[in-house]
Write a structure and sequence with these properties.
The complex is a heterodimer of chains A (419) and B (467).
Chain A (H helix, E strand, L loop, with lengths): L5 E3 L3 E4 L3 H10 L7 E4 L15 E3 L8 E2 H14 L3 E3 L3 E5 L5 E5 L2 E5 L3 E4 L3 E3 L15 E3 H10 L7 E5 L3 H12 L3 E6 L6 H5 L1 H8 L3 E2 L2 E7 L6 E6 L5 E5 L2 E4 L3 E3 L2 H5 L24 E3 L10 H20 L8 E6 L3 E5 L2 E3 L9 E6 L7 E6 L2 E7 L10 E4 L13 E6 L1
Parallel strand pairs in A: 1-9, 2-3, 2-10, 3-6, 10-21, 12-19, 13-14, 13-19, 14-15, 22-29
Antiparallel strand pairs in A: 4-5, 7-8, 8-9, 11-20, 16-17, 17-18, 22-24, 23-25, 25-28, 26-27, 26-29
Helix pairs in contact in A: 1-2, 1-8, 3-4
Chain B lengths: L1 H6 L1 E7 L3 H10 L6 E4 L16 E2 L10 H20 L3 E2 L3 E5 L2 H16 L6 E3 L1 H7 L9 E5 L3 E3 L1 H14 L3 E3 L4 E6 L4 E5 L2 E10 L5 H7 L7 E11 L10 E4 L9 E4 L5 E4 L3 E2 L10 H14 L1 H4 L3 E12 L5 E5 L4 E5 L5 H18 L30 H6 L6 E3 L4 E2 H8 L8 H8 L12 H16 L1
Parallel strand pairs in B: 1-2, 1-12, 2-9, 5-14, 12-20
Antiparallel strand pairs in B: 3-8, 4-8, 5-7, 6-7, 10-11, 11-12, 13-16, 13-17, 13-18, 15-16, 19-20, 21-22
Helix pairs in contact in B: 2-6, 2-10, 3-10
InterPro entries (chain A): FAD/NAD-bd_sf, FAD/NAD-binding_dom, Metab_Enz_Cyan_OpOx_G3PDH
Keywords (chain A): Oxidoreductase
GO molecular function (chain A): oxidoreductase activity
């Protein structure tokens, strides 16, 4: 028995070879003299898009539509061509006493010490247990992640009649995956009164996929042994309960960042996202540790994560070159109802604007023509009517200009919506 | 396979491969006896043994003078020694009983006295300052407590598996997926009719857990009746583990032992159980009421814990008996023994029950001749978080890179461990069995990342086994 570790000293270590980590690596590798090492615990790099076998990737960063696996391959190729070293099957299990990353690989144990570390560990869906759905514990209950893994990477069969819990963008991705596997979606449920992601999909949703969607509906029990036989659903308006027969249940959305390394490092956690607190340049509170992608905003699309990678790379370069020190003068950005969270959470004087000059937020209620309001110390500092709706189930984008009028030293900026 | 059973006669058939039955089979197989261990489910420890609070009890709170008190106290030492020998993970965390009101506070001296009567003298009554020093995350309002430094947490899955593995290596014939349907006692052999053929035995031991009263009735007895008592539990994310490093027990009341907060051997924190008397012996579903009850209790005991993510929820059924004590008896005329009404303390007392029962069997005429060719006790894979696990062991990885390939990220289970489980003496028959042997898929993502891989490894393993 031994816990001896081989020491590695790249210039930059990136944890996670998904869109955010790969894009950061692609930007950084040609720009730094030392090694840019990307660590990923999966056997293949590329992250979640690898098992989203449908188009819709890359529009905002590559300005073209790609399928998930195709997009993932391009990201990997670009990072490697840029000179980054990608190590797969390499799981970061924790931090050493002096701040190194402890890594397990088939080639042995490593301790990675780098001048800068980027945490790009992404997010995952809360499974049934975390959502506290009672009942039997039969086979046939999945998250979208597990479902796509089973179907697209392992080519396995699932059931024939599925109920989908949630109606986020990813929920429609689950419908497509189920259809590929020969499984009909008998019902999609949402606790929200209105499902905006549905409108996005209204044409394929109504004409092609024929998925009945029930809003203001909650799952109250899973029934069946050893396989799912039915799900009990409750109409939140009337309290009436009904049993819907099905043999597969997919819990979709309801994201949580993979924040274990963040917490193990003792970094401040944002209570809304449960990811690390970062400023607009994606620095965490500890110098030399950065974060990017869906670990910050659970969950946005792959291309937005990749643009975070670009943003964080610029910030990492400044840190390495000691060109610019982050200002002590900063403002904390706080999400107020109906916003559940906002990212990034800190704006420092003199810093770059957030990626695409957008603040990302999650909303709990649908607002058709939202007026976004920034207040500081009870005083409205900025207000803006947006032409796009705020809808549960997908990220709501807020122009970064809203922060311009806020002053450091005068308290947190609260962001909220008015109808 | 079943046809061979029809003709052969074993010396002793043990019904039930839970902790108690496995311990009994192992003990019997230490003598010159042909032993069969018959289990209705497809895996050992898949009934009441798999889902309990996994505490290695000192027996401090048993009813003094009972057989249970005697066997828990003895079993505590036997199992601890066996765990050291085989590598069953356990952690001597100690326990703290917390008094939340004056009535509970007043009950502490009585509990201390009772512990002493049970032969456990290391308890101490402490004030609120010491209570909060020991568990700073407790909610406000604790008035005092009683420390029980000997209480420990242990891996119930590995305990059961170690005993069953040991039994099999000693020559016991393990017959899984054999449900005993009827019993015919003859003059010198008993025929157990199962769904997969007859098993003929000279002696029969009934350790059928929740079904032990039904089997007992098959032998014509009517001495105890069981009903399932459902206990629901919440298991919190590993990030909560620093909040609790000892077992936090309520002061027991007339209504039972109540809800506890305990670290788990896998590095989580557990809250539960509920106690609900049921009639259906297979209903292990969880309920809205159960969750609400646990949340309410947890909010008082440790509000900070309730803010965290829940990794798993489950329900176990324990055998509640109308008899006030364990029923461990031998019917010499029928060459039949029973170990029934063994509640959750059976995890601790199992090996002592086996020892006690063998004594009774010998007196009743079962000849026990020691064997000289006993194999060594098995070395169990470590799935406890407090000990070095393969993913962090550079020597093991150097010798076999499969231990450096992490398959289940949340629980850090490696390919090597899953392969070993598939090739072990008692391989798993399903995903749950694999979970109990390795922890794979038991983590916070519940299979988001590893579910498909783990399923594939299980099915590959099964294909190889059936080739």
């Amino acid at each position: 028995m031994s816990t001896a570790r081989t020491r590695l000293t790249p210039e930059v270590a990136i944890v996670g070879a998904g869109p955010a980590g790969l894009r950061a690596a692609q930007e950084l590798a040609p720009a730094v003299p030392g090694e840019v090492l990307v660590l990923d615990r999966e056997q293949q790099a590329g992250g979640i898009p690898r098992h989203c076998d449908h188009p819709g990737f890359g529009i905002r960063d590559l300005h073209r539509f790609h399928s998930g696996p195709d997009y993932a391959r391009r990201m990997v190729d670009s990072a490697e061509r840029a000179g980054a070293v990608i190590r797969t099957g390499a799981m970061v299990t924790g931090w050493s006493a002096d701040g190194g990353l402890e890594v397990t690989t088939p080639d042995g144990l490593f301790e990675v010490h780098a001048e800068a570390i980027v945490l790009a560990t992404g997010a995952r869906e809360r499974p049934r247990t975390a959502r506290m759905v009672p009942g039997d514990r039969p086979d046939g209950v999945y998250t979208t992640g597990q479902l796509q893994n089973l179907v697209h990477l392992h080519h396995r069969k699932v059931g024939t009649k599925a109920l989908i819990v949630g109606s986020e963008l990813v929920s429609w991705s689950a419908v497509l995956t189920l259809r590929d596997a020969g499984c009909d979606t008998v019902l999609m449920t949402s606790e929200h009164p209105k499902v905006e992601s549905y409108a996005l999909f209204s044409v394929p949703g109504k004409l092609g996929l024929r998925v009945p969607v029930r809003t203001r509906t909650k799952i109250t029990r899973i029934i069946g042994k050893p396989r799912v036989e039915a799900v009990e659903v409750e109409d939140l308006a009337t309290g009436r309960r009904e049993v819907v027969p099905c043999d597969t249940v997919v819990f979709t959305g309801d994201w949580i960042p993979d924040n274990e390394l963040v917490r193990a490092a003792g970094l401040a956690l944002d209570p809304g996202t449960l990811g690390p607190v970062v400023d607009t340049e994606l620095r965490t509170e500890r110098p030399g540790i950065f974060a990017a992608g869906n670990v910050l905003h659970p969950v946005d699309t792959a291309d937005i994560a990749a643009l975070d990678g670009k943003q964080v790379a610029a910030s990492v370069l400044d840190h390495l070159r000691e060109k610019r020190h982050p200002s002590e003068k900063s403002i904390r950005i706080v999400a107020d109802e109906p916003l559940r969270w906002i990212s990034p959470m800190v704006r420092r004087v003199g810093d770059r604007r957030p990626a695409r000059n957008r603040l990302l937020a999650w909303v709990d209620h649908y607002v058709a023509f939202p007026r976004v309001v920034a207040t500081q110390n009870g005083r409205v500092v900025a207000e803006k009517r947006l032409p796009w709706p705020a809808a549960p189930g997908r990220v709501f984008r807020i122009p970064g200009d809203l922060l311009d009028a806020a002053r450091p030293g005068e308290g947190d900026v609260h962001i909220s919506l008015r109808r | 396979m079943t046809s061979a059973h029809d003709t052969e006669i074993v010396d002793v058939a043990v019904i039930g491969a839970g902790v108690v039955g496995s311990a009994i089979a192992r003990a019997l197989a230490g003598y010159q006896l042909e032993v069969a261990l018959i289990e209705s489910r497809c895996d050992v420890g898949d009934g009441t043994s798999k889902a309990n609070t996994a505490i290695l009890h000192t027996g401090f709170d048993a009813k003094p003078g009972t057989l249970e008190s005697q066997l828990v106290s003895r079993g505590y030492h036997l199992l601890k020694a066996y765990a050291d020998e085989t590598g069953i993970p356990y952690e001597p965390t100690g326990a703290l009983l917390v008094a939340w009101d004056e009535e509970q506070l007043a009950a502490l001296p009585g509990l201390q006295e009772k512990a002493a009567q049970n032969g456990y003298a290391e308890t101490e009554i402490v004030g609120p300052d010491e209570v909060y020093r020991q568990v700073p995350t407790l909610g406000p309002g604790a008035l005092g407590g009683l420390t029980v430094p000997g209480e420990s947490i242990i891996c119930t899955w590995t305990t059961n598996l170690a005993l069953a593995t040991d039994a099999v290596r000693r020559g016991t014939r393990l017959m899984r997926s054999h449900r005993v349907e009827s019993v015919t006692v003859g003059s010198d052999e008993t025929v157990l009719r199962t769904n997969r053929g007859d098993v003929r035995a000279r002696w029969v031991v009934n350790a059928a857990g929740l079904g032990s009263d039904v089997i007992d009735a098959q032998f014509g007895h009517d001495r105890f009746h069981l009903h399932p008592r459902r206990g629901e539990l919440l298991v919190f994310d590993k990030q909560t583990r620093p909040m609790v490093d000892k077992i936090v027990l309520p002061v027991p009341s007339k209504l039972g032992k109540g809800v506890l907060v305990s670290p788990t051997i896998y590095g989580n924190v557990m809250l539960g159980p509920t106690a609900e008397d049921m009639t259906n012996r297979s209903d292990t579903s969880t309920t809205e009421d159960g969750y609400e009850f646990l949340r309410e209790k947890g909010e008082r005991i440790m509000p900070q814990l309730l803010r965290e993510e829940v990794t798993a929820t489950y329900a176990g059924l324990r055998a509640a008996s109308d008899a006030p004590d364990y029923t461990v008896e031998v019917d010499a005329a029928q060459r039949y023994a029973v170990a029934g009404g063994i509640r959750s303390t059976g995890l601790t007392s199992g090996m002592a029950i086996a020892e006690h029962l063998l004594g009774l069997l010998e007196k009743a005429g079962l000849e026990l001749h020691e064997r000289e060719d006993l194999p060594d006790a098995p070395q169990m894979p470590n799935i406890g978080e407090a000990y070095l696990r393969p993913y962090a062991d550079s020597d093991r990885i150097a010798a076999d890179p499969a231990y450096g390939t992490v398959v289940c990220f949340c629980e850090r289970v490696t390919k090597g461990e899953i392969r070993d489980a598939m090739n072990s003496t008692i391989p798993p028959c399903d995903l749950d069995g694999l979970r109990r042997r390795t922890r794979a898929m038991n983590g916070r993502c519940q299979g988001f990342y590893c579910g498909a891989n783990v399923t594939e490894m299980l099915q590959d393993g099964e294909r190889k086994a059936h080739r």
